[in-house]
Amino acid sequence: MIVRFDGDVFRWEARSDSDWYFVALPPELSADIRETQTFRRGFGGVRVEATIGGSSWRTSIFPQAHDVYVLPLKRAVRDAEGIDPGATVVVDLVVLDA
To answer: Which InterPro entries match (predicted)?
Structure first.
């Protein structure tokens, strides 16, 4: 499965010394992935390859509240692409787990 979507970057404060940044997949796309994926990793993760701008990386998307998956954004990607919290990004996503 190969898809393109846009989403807003949000910050999740894990602890006082670390922040995590994510983009939520649209609910319809999340539902499609949930229906087609038979294999999930720890915490319900699904392996993907993501591309934003000129940056590509492999990671997992994870189920979150409201029945959507979230894509974690590595610091290196945020820095390379100039992504700030609240920004809207266009993501190309290849689902690797089938």
So the answer is: AF2212/PG0164-like_sf, DUF1905
